[in-house]
Amino acid sequence: MRNFKNQLAGQIGESLVVAELGRRGTVATAFAGNVPDIDILAYREGHTIHLQVKSVRKGSVSFDANRFLQINFDGDKQTVVGKSPTLDEEIIFIFVSIGDTIGEDRFFILSQSDLQGIINDNYIAWLNKHGSIRPKNAQSTHVSLSVAQIEKFKGNWELIENRLLGIGCRSEQNLPAKNSGY
Q1: Residue 166 placed within a domain
Q2: Where does the chain have alpha helices with state H?
Q3: Of 11, 97, 120, 164, whose Cβ has the fewest other Cβ atoms within 10 Å?
């Protein structure tokens, strides 16, 4: 029997985001299938933005650090030499921590640029801790992100609101003044 746990988490997360955007007066639709970097298209008053949704029930979300960073290999040693210059900093990521029941879901909203910074700092710290050699697979560029690492972006719906109004592109400037409860 096939396990659909990850697909269900993705479906739930995207549906929760579409519903919340609708509640906030934004027309949104999720894409079926794999559209690179776009899970949801959101529209309001002539402005369209695309959103990337990552959902988790427990644990962390995984990424390939090569997507975000420039990493040099010298044998088994890895060195981060910079952030990827080709990354689209305007993409907005919404991490959904799926609750056990309705109303327990939490949303963490940040720009891809902010995500890149977090991944950069975490990856460099991990390499430093292990002498620049990954313990299990020296060639791996896997990196994980926990909900605790993005806590300050909880309920940051203002980032989406501002983008839909054509205001700003840096989520650090748009962090919510108070916790909105989501």
Answers
A1: yes
A2: 5-23, 112-129, 157-164
A3: 11
